[in-house]
Amino acid sequence: MFFQKKEKMSTFSRQDQLPSLPVPSLVETLEKYIDSASALVTPEEKKRIEKEAHDFQHSDLGNQLQSALENRAKNHKNWLEDWWYNVYTEIREPLAPFVSFGALNTVYNCVDGGQVSRAADVLYHWLSVWDKIRHGKWPVTSSRGVTWDMDQFHHLFSSNRTPQKPRDTMDRYFKTKEEGETPTHVIICCNGCFWKLNILNEDDDTIKTSDELYNMLKFVRDNSPDESVGCVSKLTTTHRDVWTTNRDELLRVCDPNMVALKAVETSILFMSLVPKNGGNDQKKLISNALQDESWFVWQDKSVSITVYEDAQVMVQGDHSNIDAIVLLQVGDYAASRVRKQLWHPQKTGSDAHFEFPERLSFELNEHLKHAISQADVDFYKSKQLYRARPVHFHGYGNDLCRTAKVYTDTVVQLALQLAFLKTHGSFAPIYETASTRKFFHGRTETVRGCTQQFVRFAKALTEDQKTEKEDLKKLFDAAINAHNQFMADCMDGRGFDRHLMGLKQTLTIMNKGCGPKRAAPAFLTDDTWKRTGGDGNFLLSTSFIGYMDNEVPGAMGYVAAMRPDGYGCFYRIGKRRITFSVSDWAASRSNIDAFCGNILWALDALSPFLTPAQKL
After folding, report:
1. What are 222-238's pLDDT values in tens digits?
2. Residues with catalytic function
3. First to last CA, the chain
């Protein structure tokens, strides 16, 4: 789906050359919505949706909203950008598990006594990416010969989602060398104690070596008493309005709190050294990747890294600020370079020369102490709300699909829908991420993969009556082609979900004026709207997060399912295998164990159709 091509251009040199995000035509969007919804509604409901959409298309309101959105696009190179971030920052639920992205990496091995050496290596390689981005030397991402937007790499470090009412703010402090001064410190949390580490050498503006970082981290570990019970990071795990109130109280208590809080929020990244083993149990690891202990992660940061006593590593980030693929790319880069054995720098004793870290302290009053205790209780309750599982399929991968001239990603999408059908006996509205990073500051569009062509294929494959193999193959090809066409349209900025969101936002703005209030179009309030996925009501929330190197899964991460009764499915593709990270919400009609088993069944069921007859 993507790759990085090393060119002489600097990281952000092509930004101004990227095209603006287009506004699709109203008629095209409505036709695509009707076609998509038709796979999940009755013939009578389809007729009603068609009439409602047709009425809106030819109404004064439809023309006014479309014209207003097109005018906005003339004045904004990305008309969606601000609204898209607002959708995230208006969410008031705790970031974990409702928004954040968590990941483990199978490249990491456990090493007894290796916590500090592993942390030093991990930190060094993450900082080397920071340094490359800072100097414009991180390679520009491209896909199929097209340059992609790199703005999210500018957002990756020194960013913070700051709690505010009624909507949080995204505060970004990173600057390239050309732009000016940027924060040059990281925060290390050990046993609940906070330390500020300057990571640059003052004399030559280079990042400190792994050896220097080792000595600094060892000093932190040796001088951090257990203060985890009252650790301030627990406050970041709460409801956003609660955290807003407590953050204001933290700032009110004393001025040093403001200095310490600013150090955390502007830091390049947040790293925890924790007094427990991570282990190698992937099922346990993948669950803990999103929530382990309440003080391990400063939830507002875009990059939080947890290093366990046995050198296991987890990465977590705020999904509001960046797409998961950006975090995983950098995580894979670091993991592939980290040493897998225990090591020590040449000088580790009293003769070792290193810059001493600065201890940060927060003064707490009784209100804040009680708030931290309550945050602890709520955190461990929320850990019981969801489940997560790894799934490894070894039947085939990209090699077989390339021979058959089909995209493996499309095969996986069909398999996930078949797995849901077998598990629940019904078809599911499904979301797949399509990147729009070929456009200026583009992020994603929604591919609604449950097409009429897929429904016809799935029914023929699973129903009792026998369908000739050649006819099944034709239905399979039609489902593949329909999905591929919609993916191409979405990546070209011609999907329909973001356009409909823009029309709704435009209507909201219009209704804030002095004129008469306008009712939303009927098809957006019809009960079929949410049933087919509208407003994020997708039973399957899925994303392809990259290809494997050397058949090693590498980063395995996920965000929680979008619906209480749905599933989240992130997957990586190897030459001869496919790996999934699957999540669901407990105490609902979802059945994660059955669904995961049916993913394997579905991939096997599709293998007979992977013949050379299909053309891309």
Report:
1. 999 999 999 999 999 99
2. 319
3. 14
